[in-house]
Amino acid sequence: MPKGTIDTGYFSELPEDINIANLNPELFPKHIAVIMDGNGRWAKARDVSRTQGHKAGVKSLQEFITACVKLGIAHVSAYAFSTENWSRPKLEVKALMTMFAAEIEKQMPLLMENGVRLHFLGAIDKLPENVQESFARGIEQTAHNTKLTLHLAVNYGGRQEISHAVTRLARKVSLGELKPEEITLEHIESELDTADIPDPDLLIRTSGEMRISNFLLWQLAYTEFYMTDVLWPDFTRYDLLRALLSYQKRERRFGGLG
Ligand code: IPE
Ligand code: IPE
Ligand code: MG
């Protein structure tokens, strides 16, 4: 598939409201952030367990990643577990951790086939040992993939990330490596989990919530937001196209006059 063309085979069951000719690959985001919300409500509506909802959420992420690879998107940051999600019932947290540890291995064929490199955002070192080990294996096995980098946010909080960055900079100051008045935006950025990754161009949040829930606070400064009522397990490749069509129509001014 030459660069700049859309794989119409993969998107062959186009709903009527989507005109693929209106999509301009040259205007696609380099980095999409996604808050995958609504697994619990999806499960409740079907009278199945929340865990089943999260499992359905993994399937949705598989499709999302595959579709992003087909479209040539270079970075996807996906919010899988926030620092605030520890406050959920112990059983749900445990089920999620078990799922994270198991899924990395299960998804390996798909990640390798699609050229997806794994990277994590958040305090991974505070996760259960088996989860850490599974993540480390995932990073190692996918290290040479180049099509798309999946930044999976697990035990991630935007405020915590900024606070850690401040601590590291303060340490440099106390060691005399840096003067307080020399601290620039670049110094702060280089201490974030997203150092060297371009800021997200587009943020997608599913399930109708209109908030960012402590996701990428620094990085979302000039990101375009796309909120949809669709619950994450129901989100398809075509919903991604809808988000891209909406994104393409925006005029990004970055404070200027456009
Ligand atoms: C998002 O779905 C997944 C995680 C936060 C782990 P939720 O579990 O928040 O689903 P709802 O919001 O209860 O529907
Ligand atoms: C945000 O969803 C976190 C993830 C999707 C991992 P939540 O469901 O935790 O957010 P709130 O509590 O509705 O803000
Ligand atoms: Mg939720």
Describe this structure as you would to a colleague.
This protein is an alpha/beta fold. The protein is built from 8 helices and 6 strands; from the N terminus they run βααβααβαβααββα. The chain has a 6-stranded parallel sheet with strand order 3-4-2-1-5-6, sandwiched between helices. Strand 3, helix 5 and strand 4 form a beta-alpha-beta unit. Helix 1 (39-46) packs across helix 2 (50-71), helix 2 (50-71) packs parallel to helix 3 and helix 3 packs parallel to helix 5. It starts with 30 loop residues before the first strand and ends in a 10-residue tail after the last helix. The model has no long low-confidence stretch (mean pLDDT 97). It binds 3-methylbut-3-enyl trihydrogen diphosphate (2 copies) and magnesium ion (MG). One 3-methylbut-3-enyl trihydrogen diphosphate binds next to strand 2.
